Structures are given as C-alpha cells and as structure tokens.
C-alpha cells in the first residue's frame, strides 16, 4: 500500500495557513533576473546576515534561513521553473501537494486513519515543504534515493508504508557547513494530527547530526513515523539533509571551493592574501603569473570525511582576475604607460 495523494495541505489540511513566499522579494531581484544576478544577490545578503558576522545573532539567523530558502529555489533551474509556474494561482487545487497525509480506509491499509503531520525547526518554511520537499515513503524501500547515515531496521528493511505496518514519514533538514564539519544536535518539533478524532500530539525531538554528513543523505529516527493502532506498530521518520548555502564556499563532496578574486597586478606579481575558512581565516601565497581559473589547494580545510571527524577534505581557492570598474586619471595614465612598455599580447598572431 503506497500513500495516496489526498490533496491534504499544511496547517492540518487548510491551505489558508500556508504563507506564500516571494523569493524574488527576499533576494531583492526582479523576476527577470539572470542566474548570475540571483547568485550575486544571495552572496551579498548572505554575507550581511551570516550569523558568524552579524551583531544581532537571532534575527540574523532567521533572515539567513529565509535567504537560503529563496536561493535554494531560485538558484536551481528546475525549482525556479516550478516556482514561476505557480504564479498567482498557487492556491488552486491543481497545485496541491501530497504533503504528510493518508486517507482513511485506503485499500491494503486496514484500520488506517486519516493522518497529518508537520515539522517545526527544520530550517524551511511550510511553503517550501509543501512544494519543494518530498513527504512520502514508498513501500519496502527508503523514502529518498540517497544513502542513509543510519542503520536499517533489525529485520534488514528500511521501513514500509502501508500494508506491513505504520508508514514512514520524511522531510528536509537544513544543516550548516559548520555543523556538517563538526557534528551537532538539532531540536525540532513534530506534530501528529488526526482530523477524524481531533487528537493531536506534539513531540520535541533532538536529532543528532553526525560529522561528515552529506547533501541528500538521510538521518533516520526510529519509531517517529505514522502510527497504526490496530497493528500496534509505528513507522520511522527520515530527515534528508540539505546543506546550507554559504556566501563564500561551494561544496564538492568533502571539498570546499572558494573564488579568490585578484587584481591584475596581484596575478602578475604574486601576492600574500588571507582567505576565509570554516574556522576563521588563513594566509595564502599566490605565485607570480597566476592564471584565471587556476586552483590553489589548501589541505585539510574542507569538510569531514567520516562521522568520527578524523579526516577532512581540502579547500580549493580558484583564481578570478578582476579589473577595476573605474580608474582615476593618474591610474589611467599608468595603465597607458604599461600598455606602451609591454610587448606581451594575450592574442596569438593570425597566420
């Protein structure tokens, strides 16, 4: 018995409780913004509101999550297309999701009750969870395609949904790169609601985030899924990890990539610069004659490679050569003199 799409919505089946998120407004860009403009807007805002640098930590943390969620959608071409397609009629039934519900008396589910659930504290809004987060497990296999950070059930299965017992439920969990590096414990609230009986249960869960966790990996919390009172069994809760977007780094497995912007004279002459890491900053020597796109490797400054935190990936500084957007009259004369003196040209002579 696989879960059916019952059209149930967040807020115990009432879509009025879901607040529409204007992601373009959140990032301060027009709907016609290019991918590069969206990326630049995210980085600018993320640097301003990153909890590590902001003075008002709590307010900055909430704002940073909003910015991350907006970029999670608008920074992904498929998600952005889906979001744009919602348009003004996002509340119509055709856009309803099968988020967190089961209808009563579905074939193969003897005694199954109408069931709804909701998360708080995952780092994502109800709007995101409804339209951009999977919520159902398929019978006899894990709810996500990624690998699991937890062990399967004692009988060797990963949980079922329907005929074999209580159903598994699933959601997304936002994890910062620092928490992925060191490991952490997240607190979230799970609400179970049965609209037929009016019963409701609120449960606070402490979820351990192991060091070395990866994008898309699942964290399993046994026995926190859907309850089947007639069989006396309960499914599991699976949380899929979404690594928080960072204003300075891109993630490639256990490695981090940082765009190192250099002035033309720094690239030509070499330079000593400081670059950020997840644990502060460090000095980096740029060799003379550095080329755009060249990667400078900093060993052991990436993410953890295992749950024990005994190994780490690397940090790669990728060189980007920038030119001044404006120059003074004196600077212009200096560049003109350099152009006269230099015999180098980047263009090969034509045959």
Numbering strands along the chain, what is their spatial order in the largest sheet? 1-2-4-5
Classification by helices and strands: alpha+beta
Ends: how far apart? 71 Å
- Helix proportion range: 10-25%
The parts where pLDDT drops under 50 for at least 5 residues are 1-16, 96-114, 135-165
Order of helices and strands: HHHHHEEHEHEEEEEEEEHEEEEH
Strand content: 25-35%
What does this structure look like?
- By secondary structure, this protein is an alpha+beta fold.
- It has nine helices and 15 strands.
- It has helices at residues 10-13, 23-27, 35-49, 57-74, 77-86, 126-132, 177-182, 264-269, 329-341; strands at residues 101-102, 115-120, 169-175, 184-194, 199-209, 218-221, 227-228, 233-234, 237-243, 249-252, 255-262, 271-277, 280-286, 295-298, 315-321.
- It has a four-stranded antiparallel beta sheet. Strands 10-11-15-14 form a four-stranded mixed beta sheet.
- It is elongated.
- The termini are far apart.
- The model is unreliable at 1-16, 96-114 and 135-165 (pLDDT under 50).
Summarize the structure.
This protein is α+β, with helices and mostly antiparallel strands and 351 residues long. Helix content is 24%, strand content 25%.
Helices and strands, with pairings:
Elements: H1 10-13, H2 23-27, H3 35-49, H4 57-74, H5 77-86, E1 101-102, E2 115-120, H6 126-132, E3 169-175, H7 177-182, E4 184-194, E5 199-209, E6 218-221, E7 227-228, E8 233-234, E9 237-243, E10 249-252, E11 255-262, H8 264-269, E12 271-277, E13 280-286, E14 295-298, E15 315-321, H9 329-341
Parallel strand pairs: 3-9, 11-15
Antiparallel strand pairs: 1-2, 2-4, 4-5, 6-9, 7-8, 10-11, 12-13, 14-15
